Amino acid sequence: MEIPETSPADALLAICLFAAFADGDKSDEEREAVRRIAEEVGSENLSSLSRRILMGQLPLEDVVADLPRRDDKLLAYEMALGVCEAGGSVTSEEQEFLITLRSRLGLGQKDVKTVEDEASAIALQPVPAVSVADAGTPEAASAGPDNSASILNYAILNGALELLPETLATMAIVPLQMKMVYRIGQSHGVELDRAHIKEFLATAGLGLGSQVVEGFARQLMRGLGKKMLGGLGGKAAGQVTGSAFSFASTYAIGHVADKYYAGGRRLDTDAMRALFQSLQTKARELHTTHLPEIQEKARTINPASLLSMVTSAKAA
Fold first, then answer.
1. Could you report the per-residue pLDDT of 160-207, keeping only the tens digit for each?
2. Are 101 and 77 in contact (CB under 8 A)?
3. In a 3-state reduction of DSSP, which class is residue 176?
4. What band does 121 get if pLDDT is binned at 50, 70 and 90?
5. Cα 291 versus chain centre, distance
6. Can you give the pLDDT at residue 94?
7. Contact yes or no for 250/179 (Cβ under 8 A)
8. CA 255 to CA 203: how far, in whole Å?
9. Could you tell me where the DSSP H helices lie in 42-147?
């Protein structure tokens, strides 16, 4: 059987999938994420690429060969790094993959230093505690027992980030969700570390790596930004679709965390996932109501402030 060639767009998506699978986790959740991406962009390419990668029919060197432009090679590395950094740490397998990818792309350490520094700073930044000086700000809502306002604030912010063309904006969504969960736990007297937050998100059904893959896929397929292959288009989900997804997932995980930590962590996995799904459905409807606020927030976000947005004690 003849193996079809990959287009530059497919090559970028394939590299995201290589990164997602680099740690050896070829789970049902990863496969489901790929299915959702294919559904959203109205394309069979993503599911096909996934199958070919998992079956060893699509070598990394062949994929890289379909990225002749230097800008596209840099973007490919940036996207792969974003997937690997999504959980806040890079495994030895992922690090090995990134080294191999950089070599295959013909990129040197100087070529990728800036994006590596930015990605690591966003993904690995510890979450600062809320101080007394923050009282009275929107962010301070998470310091008390009622976290509804803070959760909505984070949902609007992450929905707004999906409206930006910068790939770094997509990378900021997961750290902001982790920051939100940290603050919710803190409001209920529970101090959380990054490993626990990652485990909580996974248990509730929100995969970190798959979120980044999906976010990059949406940005790539709708052809945003000058770096995106010179105006790549196609049948893609619009910006509003991506915004609704990030708004809904942030809103749902926030309220699941609030219920979980307020109730002494008694929800089991099935109950958490059922609650997450029902809240996500509700939040998709709420997105329409809050879309004007989300769009206004997007207009006020300076891409250069993304790092400080993640690291500061106050929401952007």
1. 988 887 666 777 788 888 888 988 998 999 988 877 887 888 888 776
2. yes
3. helix
4. low
5. 20
6. 86
7. no
8. 14
9. 45-54, 60-65, 70-85, 92-105, 109-124
